[in-house]
Design goal:
Layout: E1 22-23, E2 27-29, E3 36-37, E4 43-48, E5 54-62, E6 72-80, E7 85-91, E8 96-102, E9 106-112, H1 127-139, E10 146-149, E11 158-166, E12 172-180, E13 186-192, E14 211-216, H2 242-259, E15 263-273, H3 275-286, E16 292-296, H4 303-309, H5 314-323, H6 328-336, E17 351-356, H7 364-371, E18 379-384, H8 397-409
Parallel strand pairs: 2-18, 3-9, 13-14, 13-15, 15-16, 16-17, 17-18
Antiparallel strand pairs: 1-2, 4-7, 5-6, 5-8, 8-9, 10-11, 11-12, 12-14
């Protein structure tokens, strides 16, 4: 997924004094750089910045005003100390996310009580009927999987296959599966790909005691020919929008996983980042056979506010809508059927979510539009304060996610 970084200059990576990770019942800030406030006010920002010592203008701008007239909620005359430490008493702030603007060059985000951010579902009255009708169409299409062995990703432990099966509209979707050769029942890990990601196949020696599946929805992964604007395809109508078919491909992938002879039906898990995080949420919302889910920097949450925070992807959708003469009201009505926050209340399995406080692609507010509407109470978030969108590059995240699934595997 593209990254349009709005950070200007080098933001700080260290606190003035070293602290361990913040751990609360609701989430973890890992490591703690003093930018995420999980407790009660008053709040004090103490951090190092890449700025010359001396007097400095300081203000906070709400994240949901970044694409328009900036809404300044706090201003102060600040001083950057000789060791580049910035200390500002912020007092009380509403739950949400803010951009720090120090002088004309330093920009970075902070967050306040993210699990209290409100982004209420806005599903249309016929949301359930629409998806019930859609999934009935899907059910009428037989799976008919076609297995093709991939010898270069196979060994004595596991064999890799590319699998192709039919989905909504008779379109082919599929996956790359790494299947243990020994008899038995194994946990299944369904992994969903980021927007336009290159196809990835698993190391057959990597996790020999589980089934790994990398899912490809229509037009992506196994089927990707070139970069496309999937997010704006078919936007004129909810029945033709790209993600109607893609969400069905996700649901079909769970059906395929559950059909495997070697699959342990009590240990089917889903994980993904960015678009893959959104697809993970859809899998868990539409099929209760998903027993635990990991969402990292999830995409497609809260379209209306998305457009107020960052340019892409909503403004790409705007451009296509304008070409077709689609009003904003009609556009957002259509998008509401595919807004992951409207599926979130249907997710009842345990969930862990990771987000980057500096994410300019799937900004934190849109992540919490999903997280705060989850139907499960067994949920936990992990913040990497200095991370943008590339959560997969953060060394702290993978062990946390793996530990989460390890516990679920033992139940």
């Amino acid at each position: 997924m593209r990254a349009h970084f709005y950070l200007i200059g080098l933001i700080c990576l260290l606190l003035a004094s070293c602290h361990s990770a913040i751990e609360t019942p609701t989430g973890t800030c890992e490591p703690d750089n003093g930018w995420l406030f999980l407790g009660k006010a008053p709040y004090s920002l103490v951090t190092r910045v890449d700025a010359a010592p001396g007097p400095a203008s300081f203000c906070l701008v709400t994240d949901r005003s970044l694409m328009g007239e900036p809404e300044v909620v706090f201003e102060a005359d600040a001083v950057v100390e000789a060791d580049s430490t910035l200390r500002v008493e912020l007092g009380s702030l509403e739950p949400g996310f803010y951009q720090v603007r120090l002088r004309d060059s330093v920009r970075f985000n902070i967050g306040v009580r993210p699990d209290a951010v409100v982004s209420a579902p806005d599903a249309q009255a016929d949301f359930d009927d629409f998806w019930e009708r859609t999934f009935k169409e899907l059910e009428a299409i037989s799976l008919e999987p076609e297995w093709v062995e991939v010898p270069e990703y196979s060994n004595e432990l596991r064999t890799t296959y590319d699998v192709y099966y039919k989905s909504l509209g008779g379109v082919t979707a599929g996956c790359s599966i790494c299947l243990p050769n020994a008899p038995g029942k194994y946990p299944v890990f369904l992994q969903y790909m980021g927007y336009g990601s290159e196809l990835f196949r698993f190391d057959p020696s990597g996790n020999p005691d589980r089934i790994d599946i990398m899912v490809s929805v229509r037009g992506q992964g196994l089927f990707k020919k070139a970069a496309e604007s999937w997010v704006s395809q078919g936007i004129a109508d909810k029945d033709t929008y790209y993600y109607r078919g893609a969400f069905c491909d996700v649901k079909r992938s769970v059906e395929f996983a559950a059909s495997l002879e070697k699959a342990d039906p009590d240990r089917i898990f889903a994980l993904g980042e960015s678009q893959g995080g959104a697809f993970t949420a859809i899998a868990a919302a539409t099929d209760k056979r998903i027993r635990a889910a990991s969402l990292a920097v999830p995409f497609l949450g809260d379209y209306p506010d998305y457009a107020r925070i960052v340019w892409w992807p909503v403004h790409e959708v705007f451009a296509q809508a304008d070409q077709q003469g689609i009003s904003r009201e009609d556009l957002f009505r259509t998008l509401s059927y595919f807004d992951v926050k409207n599926f979130a209340p249907r997710i009842t399995c345990p969930v862990i979510m990771a987000f980057g406080l500096q994410d300019p692609t799937c900004p934190p507010h849109t992540n919490f539009a999903i997280y705060n509407n989850l139907g499960t109470k067994d949920k936990h978030f992990v913040c990497i304060p200095t991370c943008g969108h590339a959560m997969w590059k953060e060394p702290a995240w993978t062990p946390i996610r793996d530990a989460f699934f390890s516990k679920k595997c033992k139940k």
